[in-house]
Amino acid sequence: MGNLLVRPMSLTDLDAVVEIESANYQFPWTRGHFADSLNAGYIAMCLVVDQRVQGYCILMRVLDEAHLLNISIRTSEQNRGWGSFLLDWCCAHLRAQNCSGLLLEVRPSNEAARHIYERFGFRLVGVRKGYYPAVVGREDALVLFKSFDELTQAVDTGKPMGSS
Ligand SMILES: CC(C)(COP(=O)(O)OP(=O)(O)OC[C@H]1O[C@@H](n2cnc3c(N)ncnc32)[C@H](O)[C@@H]1OP(=O)(O)O)[C@@H](O)C(=O)NCCC(=O)NCCS
User: Fold this and answer.
1) Cβ of 110 below 6 Å from ligand 1
2) 14 within a domain of the structure (yes/no)
3) Are the CB atoms for 100 and 115 separated by under 8 Å?
4) Is 56 a catalytic site residue?
5) Is there an atom of ligand 1 within 6 Å of 111 CB?
6) What pLDDT digit, counting tens, does each position of 124-141 carry?
């Protein structure tokens, strides 16, 4: 997997970040969106592999919950486990900060992302109609939530606490 590091994003990372973003999305965030996220104090992290930025995530903390605004891995580096590594970092970091859960939106057509979120135990909690721009018209967003509260998780899965 190489030498992996998750560290705070800074303005000097934005060339790499915007390059990754532009290759990943039909409707990418602009440099301004990332700069605004840094200015706003969001949790903006880079995944660095062997000294190269290969991905990033942006988390917004709202009271005791967090919202995953963006997570991306360089197109050529996907399917190597780095997206899962970064999402795992997000969950561990938020738990350590006593956050109760993580919310996100995903396009129904984004099968790779939906696959990971399901594997991480995110649950569908709603649909935002016409949330995303699309080549033709708009696309809905699935709203997913992962609770970090162990009691809620046990009730959700129907499993007693402590079972795997
Ligand atoms: C979503 C994203 C961050 C995942 O990163 P990644 O490094 O490729 O993720 P991983 O390698 O950890 O895992 C990829 C998983 O998706 C699966 N996958 C890949 N393509 C898939 C597809 N078309 N349908 C279903 N599953 C798929 C892989 O098999 C793998 O699952 P597994 O580990 O259970 O075998 C990355 O694909 C990405 O940057 N996409 C573009 C940006 C984006 O859509 N971000 C999410 C916005 S909500």
Assistant:
1) yes
2) yes
3) no
4) no
5) yes
6) 999 999 999 999 999 999
